[in-house]
Structure formats: C-alpha cells, structure tokens
Automatic annotation (TrEMBL):
CDD domains: eIF2D_C. Residues 501-577 form the SUI1 domain. This is SUI1 domain-containing protein. It comes from the Eukaryota. GO terms for biological process: formation of translation preinitiation complex. InterPro entries: EIF2D, eIF2D_SUI1, Pre-PUA, SUI1, SUI1_dom_sf, SWIB_eIF2D, SWIB_MDM2_dom_sf, WH_eIF2D. GO terms for molecular function: translation initiation factor activity.
Length: 590
C-alpha cells in the first residue's frame, strides 16, 4: 500500500485531549485483547499507561492519499512516527502500523501474529500481496490464529527462535484462514492444481514509504506468542521439534518491472536464515527438476542442483555462508530425512549414503512455490554480460546481407540467366542479369527502350503472357517480388526478409510514456540482455514481454522501458553494431 511515495500528505496538526481519549477508547473497543494486559497485578499495566503507549500525549493527525488513490487519516507520534491509520474517507476503523508495534511494551501482543520466513520473500518488500504458502506452521494449525476475512494481523519473521515484527496485513481470503487452508488441503487431496490466490493484503511492511517517514524505531525480538484463538485445539502431546524444512518461502506474484531487493549484508546470516534459504533452493530445485533426474544421491542433488538454485537476492559476499554446515541441520543427511518426514521427498539409504528417490509434486510446499531468480542464472547473466562487454571493447558494425534465390514459377527464367535453383545471390546481381537476358534475347522494344517484349520464360516469371509488352521497371519489380529471400547477419543465414528493429513511444495511463523495442531477435540480440542494458542507460524500469500480434511459436519478444527513450535505444543498438538503416524509429503512437 505504501510501496511508493504518497500522492498527497497534509500537514500534521495536534488533536485535542478529548479527541485523544476518544481515540484510545475506540482502539480498546476494536481490539478487546488489549484489556488482557490491563490490571493491578505486578507486571500488568494500568489502562492509562497502556493508552499512552498506544496514543501518546501530543499525537497529531494528518490526511493522506496513496499513489493508488486511497485516501485516509494517519495519527503520528510527536516524533513523527505514523502509529495508526484510518483507511478510507470517513472510516472509523483504526489500523496499527509497524511503528506502533515497535512501541508496544514487552510481552504486549494484542494483535494476532502470523510468522513469515526470514529473510522475507523479496516480492513482499516490493509491494506484492501475501499468499498462503508464505505463512509458516501451516502443518501445525494449532500454532495459527483463527482469522476471519477482513481481520487485521501483525506479521513477524524469524527462524526457530525469536521473531521480529515486520508489517501489518488484512486477511483477504474468503472464509479467512480456515477457509483458505481448507481449500488448499482439499485441492491437494483431489489432485487439483489450483492457485488459492492472495491470502492477505499488505497494509504496511518494513522499509516501505510509511516506515521511512518516521524515525524507524528499533524492532525488539520476542518469542512468538501462542494464539488466543487457535485455528484448531493443540494435540495432547505436541512434538518439540516440528519440521519446517520444506515450508514454502512465498507463492507471490510480482510485476516484472520490480527489482528484487537484496538481503542486508551488514550482519552474518543466522542458522535459521541459512535454513530458510536452503529450503527455498530445495523447493526451486524440485519445482524445476527435469523428468528422469531422480533417483540421485543426496550429495549430488545438493551440489549439482540445490546450491546453484539458491536465491540470487543473497548478496554475493554472503552466498558462501548459505551452505548446509551453517544451517540448523549441520548435516545433509539430517536435513534430507526431515524433509522426507514432511512428505516432500522420498529417500532410502544405500551403503551408508542417503539417496533421494522421488518427490511429491502435489505437496503444498512445492505446488505453492513461486520461482525466483537463482544464483546460477545470475552468474550466467553476468558471464554473458562480460562476454558482451569484451566484444563491445572492439566496436564493429554488423555484416548484414540480403540474399535471394529462385522460387516457384521464375526458376526457369533464372536458370536461363545462369542461376541455379537453391543458390543464394546478392541483390546487386539482379539488374545486370536481367539486362543481359533482355539484350541476349532481343526483347527490348525498338521504338521505346523502356518497354520489354516478354518471351515465354520471362512472361512466366513476371506473371504475364508471351508477346505482351511490359515497362522495364515494372518487370524488375515483379521479378524481385517473386524471389525467395534470406538474410545473412554476421555470417548466420536465416530464411525470410529481415525486418528493421522498431522503436515506438506510446502513452499509457494518462501521461505515462513507455518506449517499445521489437525485432531484436533477427539481429541476434538477446531481449533480456538488452533490457538490462536499457535499465542502466535510462535509469528506469524495463520488462520483456511477448510481441503483441506475433505467433507464440515464433517466441518473439518486445522490450519495454519507461519514458521516451528513442535516442538512448538507438545509441544502444548502434553500439551493438546494428546499422542505422536497420533501425526504424516510428516516434510516438497512441
């Protein structure tokens, strides 16, 4: 909700003491669990003290409008930290912010809490909704709060130890958490492949614009509280060690234009964080594993598949830390056995070595997994970039040649000109060959030299009749149109005529302009690499999408970059050796 800067934010003005007291009363009414922390016993808070923690003296209010046009009111502390939100014009509901959660006294957790993986899935930080597989403890529902649709929930992240508050969300799934989880289990049991869709909307999350507005107070770690109203009663004997190895990291959708935030590398990764990242790599591996790969020794699966599939958002200086020896499991065999116990994979032990024999593609952890950019993909892209930069060090223009060959009914004519069927020839040879044929066979009209008398072979080639007279230029045009064309780009010959690279500027969503580039494949330019180049050159977001109107079989792509970037695109193409005559800047279109 606050991914981008606010479209409007009025000056904050102090509210009256009576209004502050009314605000506190309204908050206690909306969140009855707050009353559980009020009392005269030792360690309890008075209602007055808790009220000041929730709405301090000197609180101010201001109106705001988000970049998406959502209006509301926010209540700020005297230090400028947004504490409460009232979303929607005239709304009486008060929603806590992450800054408010950070100010709560120790052991005061009045809002239901959902635990997410740590580090957080990058799409959540980029503004995506929360999907159910990103919630931890799905297989131990007594650890989950019963959340109806529309409920406000605090979001926390961490490993097997303490957690930290990271945001606030609102349940969007029909019938709440119980309904969403029930549908997920039902679909799995029925073997139905269906995405449950978003589970909750993110109202605010760490490092968004709302968080940046304030002083960014310290988020203290705390033990994940047991839910007041659990989704189901806890079992009599709950196992102490609950396997979470294969929980989904995050089944979220994200606009291709969004950048993947990186984990902050200021501190070493904790064992719980390493475990989460390795679990994500395992799910990525199983979701993309080619058929017939298994069975495979666990050590080979780990080294050849899991390690290359670690998330690319891990900073390069921390990637060597994400290994089994620094995880909570320490040993690969222990990890594989725990994942097998969860039902994600099946293993057997052969001569003292664990062998992964198969996996369950319908398991919620795999079925709900959202693919991400991996370290191997990142390294491959870096290698391609380095190779391209090395080639660019010696700039040279592409060698582009149009070629032709006899085709269809004109084959007899070109054979008479000495051209073999199937041979590729330069366009410059067409006119001399035709002129020589006309002169050799005496076909030029004696009174009008611009006219040609057609013989049988020439008439068949141009679609005329023997004895008919045709203007020489028209004769040349028809001969050219009847040829089979190919193109040589850098020595690589392709069938068909070469289409210039198209650059079009279009206006979308009011005044927003984007530049579309199509036709790169014909010149051997990788659209993904070119999009990366434009992102740096234009300092704007880019995306690669299927070319509108083209056949899916051709797999043609179109690069989009924000803004009117015709000049920058042309420079990028010429630096890659594309001649200017093969660049068609079509300017602005609607």
């Amino acid at each position: 909700m606050f991914k981008k800067a606010l479209a409007h934010h009025s000056n904050a003005t102090p509210i009256r003491s009576s209004a502050r007291r009314a605000l506190v009363t309204s908050i206690f009414a909306q969140y009855p669990a707050l009353s559980e922390h009020v009392g005269e016993e030792e360690g309890m808070l008075s209602e007055k003290d808790l009220g000041r923690a929730l709405v301090p003296d000197g609180v101010r209010s201001s109106n705001f409008e988000t970049s998406a046009g959502i209006e509301g009111t926010m209540y700020l502390s005297p230090d400028g930290d947004p504490l409460w939100l009232s979303i929607g014009r005239g709304s009486k509901e008060l929603v806590p912010t992450l800054a408010l959660l950070a100010r709560l006294p120790h052991d005061v957790h009045p809002f239901p809490v959902l635990q997410l993986p740590s580090p957080l899935p990058p799409p959540l930080l980029a503004g995506a909704a929360l999907f159910l597989p990103a919630v931890r403890h799905l297989h131990t529902p007594w650890r989950l709060p019963a959340l109806p649709a529309g409920a406000i929930v605090a979001l926390a992240a961490g490993g097997s130890g303490d957690v930290l508050y990271v945001g606030v969300g609102r349940v969007a799934a029909a019938d709440g958490l119980e309904g969403a989880l029930g549908r997920l289990v039902k679909h799995r049991n029925e073997g139905v492949e269906r995405d449950e869709g978003k589970f909750a909307d993110i109202i605010c999350i760490i490092d968004d614009h709302l968080w940046e507005m304030g002083s960014k107070p310290t988020l203290a770690p705390f033990a994940l509280p047991a839910p007041r109203d659990p989704l189901m009663p806890p079992p009599q004997d709950e196992p102490k060690d609950v396997d979470e190895a294969a929980e989904g990291v995050a089944a979220v959708s994200l606009d291709d234009n969004a950048e993947e935030p990186q984990i902050q590398a200021s501190e070493p990764l904790a064992p719980a964080e390493v475990s989460t990242l390795l679990s994500a790599a395992l799910l990525q591996t199983l979701a993309t594993l080619p058929a017939g790969t298994l069975p495979l020794p666990a050590s080979q699966l780990y080294s050849a598949h899991i390690l290359p599939n670690r998330p690319a958002y891990i900073p390069p200086e921390r990637r060597e830390d994400v290994v089994i020896g620094r995880s909570e499991w320490k040993k690969l065999a222990k990890w594989m056995k725990e994942v097998a116990k969860d039902g994600v994979i099946k293993t057997k032990e052969t001569k003292g070595e664990v062998v992964v024999t198969s996996f369950d593609p319908k398991h919620p952890a795999i079925d709900g997994h959202a693919s991400f950019k991996t370290i191997s993909e990142d390294e491959a892209k870096a290698a391609r970039r380095a190779a391209r930069e090395e080639e660019a060090a010696v700039p040279k223009q592409m060698d582009i040649q149009e070629l032709w060959k006899p085709a269809g009914s004109n084959a007899e004519f070109w054979a008479a000109c000495g051209i073999e069927k199937g041979s590729l020839n330069q366009p410059s040879a067409i006119k001399p060959l035709v002129d020589a044929y006309i002169e050799r066979n005496g076909l030029e009209d004696k009174e009008h030299r611009r006219l040609v008398n057609l013989d049988k072979a020439l008439a068949s080639a141009v679609g005329g009749k023997e004895g008919q007279t045709l203007i020489r230029d028209e004769c040349m045009r028809r001969l050219r149109s009847g040829l089979g064309w190919a193109v040589s780009v850098g020595g690589h010959v392709k069938k068909g005529a070469l289409t210039p690279i198209s650059i079009v500027v279009k206006t979308r969503q009011g005044r927003k302009q984007v530049t579309l580039v199509a036709g790169l494949e014909g010149f051997g330019i990788d659209p993904d690499d070119f999009a990366d180049d434009l992102r740096r050159r234009c300092a704007g977001s880019t995306s690669v999408q299927p070319l509108t109107g083209s056949s899916p079989k051709l797999n043609l792509k179109e690069v989009m970059v924000q803004g009117s970037q015709g000049k920058a695109v042309t420079e990028a193409l010429t630096e890659r050796g594309v001649p200017r005559r093969w660049i068609k800047d079509e300017g602005k279109k609607k």
